[in-house]
From TrEMBL:
GO MF annotation list: cyclic-guanylate-specific phosphodiesterase activity; kinase activity
Domain EAL residues, every copy: 464-718
GO terms of biological process kind: cellular response to nitric oxide; phosphorelay signal transduction system
Name of the top EC class for this enzyme: hydrolase
Top-level lineage group: Bacteria
SMART domains xrefs: EAL, GGDEF, PAS, REC
Name the UniProt record assigns to this protein: cyclic-guanylate-specific phosphodiesterase
Highest classification ranks of the organism: Bacteria, Pseudomonadati, Pseudomonadota, Gammaproteobacteria, Pseudomonadales
4-aspartylphosphate: modified positions: D66
């Protein structure tokens, strides 16, 4: 920017004098340096109190100040400056972005509002513009004092005004309009004279604008001020916001000239007014208001606006004895996608999800982004539970189709909790909380579904909160124990492997099994800490037994979907194995088919990496999921584990026995090892031996035992697993 830049000089022809006020020295110096570089005369004030002192000693054309300052804040400085130097303009440069603060600053006379951190070019442009406008305004005021001496000078000032200046006859027709109307609205002054002012009013403001001039108390000392929308020339849709100030002219005191008499209708001017373009201010106010009540990523109502609408809907439903539904939606698998592909892709996915959800709801419904990957939906005035049920099914179906994010095709589901007013609560907070509780019950039952809230869920929720608290304490107090269940060779009865199983020694409830707390651990994201504890202890124990003379002993560890789906799964697992000096070839990880099929591409890559490092892969609960020959053939699978439900059915030719036959035959055909779980009787063991299933585990050899009992058996080279 050169010294000839518009606005560099003030109305007196010298470099504009600027006062910069901020209590942050670094920001103060940075702003002052930027302005001096453009040729402005800058004075710095370190805080509000210092600024007031300088204002008493020097005069300024423009002040740039922060709002949030100790002792004397920006509003106080504005008030002091307005009293001492009313001609000095003000620009607020602040990190305070609340609607209340911005609105208050504009009401106090701030000419513009710039948010920190500011863009240097934007700030310099704003300063230049404001100083330019100040210069015009001051010039306008100065020349007005000489109106009586020079009518030509009067016309110059009016036409150079930053505002539209107009005169109307007693019927509301234009008698005079300055040339500014062409720059702001596109009309020639001559084509408006003789027309009624409603000609340029937006249709929505015609009644209000017409009524404004008919008020009985309008005088020169008490002008009428209102904001209206004016149409631009050539388009009824293009409108701009103006602040109109108008008052009647006293024909006894107002000197009439040829330029102020009606040129087309011969009538005398009876009203004088100005119209200031406030479009940018209105747009700024609208944007600030939008920010306060909407999520900028999805453009949906945010939590605050949702609660406002829910409160109104409850009041309406109570008055009319109607029902309404609150839905709490939580996306399934979003965190995995976000962590894997990055936050930019995660944001694109949220926007795509929003578009699909909006297509499923009615016009009067309110869909909001509650936070993260959580959404809430308000269904006002429903007739029955079935209305909410149908909407839930539509939402679930809409999100089942894959999403294309660049080169990636991803799948997400949604878990929906539903609370119906008034059965599930009569207040806003109750309905939201109970819908949230119902959603967590969907998560606990496998996700991708919906449930209505019931009173029993509230009881479960209290129990869940207590158990969650205890589980967090258990991790700190080392209450989680690792037990081991032997995997035994069915022909020699020798222990060939150990499956690590977690137990919780609860101080009040005794020994708890995985089914009692692992679902909660997954729901509360504590599963990773629990698994890390099990892996550390198992590597330590089994590693010691391997070094003590059991070199082929295998450690089998179950892994949760949360762990396997994590982008750094392989790296994290191998770091723990290496840290304990555990041989990778002795480790076998167990995952379910569902984990693989949820994201076959990503999981396949991870399993191949582990297999390359020597880690064995086992499919747990085989036969209960997809049971796809395709992935068995493609992936580095070493072991199939027959689910215990099929083993239990080995009695008198039941269907379960047939399934076991098929699985064992499949394993042999694919050259995979096979382990049968849940073996409890001689009959089952003999049947499995006859099929060629050489590895089994179950209560036939005893339950899972703590490390000290396992150690005693392994130390006896002649001991057989049947002694467990």
């Amino acid at each position: 920017m050169t010294p000839e830049h518009t606005g560099l000089t003030s109305s007196h022809g010298f470099p504009a004098r600027l006062l910069v006020v901020d209590d942050e020295p670094r920001l103060l110096n940075s702003l002052a340096t930027l302005l001096r570089g453009e040729g402005y005369e800058v004075t710095e004030a370190a805080g509000g109190r210092h600024a007031c002192s300088i204002i008493d000693q020097m005069s300024f054309d423009l002040a740039l100040l922060d709002l949030r300052m100790p002792e004397v804040d920006g509003f106080d400085v504005m008030a002091y400056l307005s009293d001492k130097q009313p001609d000095c303009g003000t620009i607020v440069v602040s990190g305070e972005s609340s609607f209340a603060a911005v609105s208050r600053a504009l009401r106090r006379g701030a000419l513009d509002y710039i948010r920190k951190p500011f863009d240097p070019d934007e700030l310099l442009t704003t300063v230049s513009s404001v100083i330019g406008k100040q210069s015009l305004l001051k010039a306008h005021e100065h020349v007005q004092m000489r109106l009586e001496k020079s009518e030509a000078l009067h016309r110059y000032i009016v036409n150079s005004s930053p505002d539209i200046v107009f005169m109307l006859d007693e019927d509301g027709h234009f008698c005079f309009v300055n040339s500014k109307v062409e720059a702001l609205l596109g009309y020639q002054p001559s084509e408006l004279c003789g027309h009624h002012f409603r000609h340029i009013l937006d249709d929505r403001d015609v009644a209000r604008g017409t009524y404004a001039l008919k008020g009985p108390n309008i005088t020169a000392d008490n002008p009428r001020t209102l904001e209206v929308r004016l149409k631009t020339r050539g388009s009824r849709r293009a409108t701009r916001h103006f602040e109109i100030t108008a008052f009647p002219i006293d024909p006894q005191t107002w000197p009439q000239s040829q330029d102020t008499r009606g040129r087309t209708n011969g009538k005398t001017a009876r009203y004088y007014g100005t119209a200031r373009d406030v479009t940018e201010r209105k747009e700024a106010e609208a944007f600030i208001n939008f920010q306060a009540y909407h999520d900028l990523l999805t453009r949906l109502p945010n939590r605050a606006l949702f609660k406002d609408r829910l409160e109104l809907a409850i009041t309406h439903a109570r008055r009319n004895h109607q029902k309404l539904a609150v839905m709490f939606l939580d996306l399934d698998r979003f965190k995995v996608i976000n962590d894997t592909l990055g936050h930019a892709m995660g944001d694109r996915l949220l926007q795509a999800v929003t578009q699909r959800l909006e297509k499923c709801i009615r016009k009067g419904d309110t869909l909001s982004r509650f936070g993260g990957d959580e959404f809430t939906l308000l269904l006002p005035s429903i007739h029955s539970h079935d209305d909410a049920r149908q909407i839930s099914k539509k939402l679930i179906k809409a999100l089942r189709a894959p999403f294309q994010l660049g080169e990636h095709e991803v799948f997400v589901g949604v878990s929906i909790g539903i609370a119906i007013y008034p059965e599930a609560g009569e207040s806003m907070d109750q309905l939201i909380q109970n819908a949230d509780i119902a959603m967590y019950h969907v998560k606990a039952r496998g996700k991708d579904g919906y449930r209505f809230f019931s009173e029993s869920m509230s009881i479960d929720s209290v129990h869940r909160l207590n158990l969650e608290r205890d589980l967090r304490l258990a991790l700190e107090r080392n209450e989680l124990k690792v037990f081991y269940q032997p995997q035994v060779c069915s022909t020699t009865n020798r222990v060939v492997g150990l499956e690590a199983l977690v137990r919780w020694q609860h101080p009040e409830r005794g020994l708890l099994y995985p089914r009692d707390f692992l679902p909660l651990a997954e729901e509360t994201r504590l599963i990773s800490q629990v698994s890390e504890h099990v892996m550390d202890q198992a590597c330590k124990d089994v590693g010691q037994w391997i070094r003590e003379g059991n070199p082929d002993l295998r450690l089998a560890v179950n892994l949760s979907p949360v762990q396997v789906e994590h982008p750094r799964f392989v790296e994290t697992l191998m770091q723990r194995v290496t840290a304990h000096g555990f041989p990778a070839k002795n480790l076998e990880i167990e995952i379910t088919e569902n984990v693989i099929m949820n994201d076959l591409e990503q999981i396949s890559q991870k399993l191949r990496e582990l297999a390359t490092l020597g880690v064995r892969i086992a499919i747990d609960d085989f036969g209960t999921g997809y049971s796809s020959l395709n992935y068995l053939h493609r992936l580095p699978i070493h072991t199939l584990k027959v689910d215990q439900s099929f083993v239990k059915a080995i009695r008198g030719g039941e269907d379960g026995a047939c399934i076991v036959n098929a699985i064992v035959a499949m394993a042999h055909g694919l050259k995979l090892e096979i382990v049968a779980e849940g073996v409890e009787t001689d009959e089952q063991l003999e049947y499995l031996r006859s099929l060629g299933c050489h590895q089994v585990q179950g209560f036939f050899y005893g339950p899972a035992r703590p490390a000290n009992e396992i150690s005693q058996t392994l130390c006896n080279p002649n001991a057989e697993a049947v002694s467990f």
